Amino acid sequence: MSALRVLIVDDEAPARSRLRRLLDGFVEDGRIEAPVEAADGVEALERLAEAERPFDLAFLDVRMPEVDGFDVVERVAAERRPDVVFTTAYDEYALRAFRANATDYLLKPIDAERLEEALARVEDRRGDSEERDERLAALLDTLDEQAAAPPPDGDTGPPIERFTVQGVDRLVVVSAGDVIAAEVSDGITNLYVRQEGREGGAGIGRHLVGFTLDALEARLDPARFMRVHRSALVNLTCVREMVPWFSGRYKIVLTGGHEVTASRSRSRELRDRLSL
């Protein structure tokens, strides 16, 4: 296999420099060409579109101003789209990265061993893209099967007490009682749950899940959970404060300090349900 053409995209110069240093060994081994850099998503799109030879691999930072890593993937022409390895300091983008057909997902600070694994995956993908796509399809099928969709004929059955969500490399069992809230952002459902901290204190964990709010709401106990906005579902037992907000709305403060703003109509219903 010929050396891969690589593009490094990150709006932070130190991050680009660190990744370039980590890649130096692969340049010396002849596995990749000397990387090209882009300081933001806009520059990345220009380089991807104007390169004489299409890039084989792009290391894309997720969070960038104006045009983020996911925007770059969506906007680049299909014939110019390289294999993508997302890089980020945040772990909540894993599911979205897989849905964007990313080859891998690296957390900053990037570890040399994980970088080697990511490059090997790209090389494997280019050697047998069909097999890799089948593995990705299988993963997404697994995620979709987790959707807590109502059974046929409108019979949702008894409320669920426990269910699984997809972690980065494992299935995580979540107790329904530990769910604080669920919110949709950019088409992705974010699940917020109570979890024990390393020193025994309570904290909040977040999971990206493959099911919709409608499906989740249909399977949770309606006496305990309420849809307070078309994009937000909360556990009523976790409500700690209701702060008057604009236009008759309430900002809801939940366990752990998590905040959700209710719509105006749902604010009235919420107030009634909590007998305020």
Care to describe what's here?
The protein has 276 residues and is of the alpha/beta class. The chain folds into two domains: 6-142, Response regulator (Rossmann fold); 152-273, Beta Barrel (OB fold (Dihydrolipoamide Acetyltransferase, E2P)). Helix content is 32%, strand content 29%. It is built from eight helices and 15 strands. A hairpin with a 2-residue loop joins β11 and β12 (232-235). The longest helix is centred in the middle third of the chain and has 17 residues, at 129-145. The model is unreliable at 142-154 (pLDDT under 50).
Short description:
The chain has 276 residues and is α/β, with parallel strands linked by helices.
Identify the notable features of this structure and list them briefly.
8 helices, Rossmann fold, OB fold (Dihydrolipoamide Acetyltransferase, E2P), 15 strands, 5-stranded antiparallel beta sheet, 5-stranded parallel beta sheet
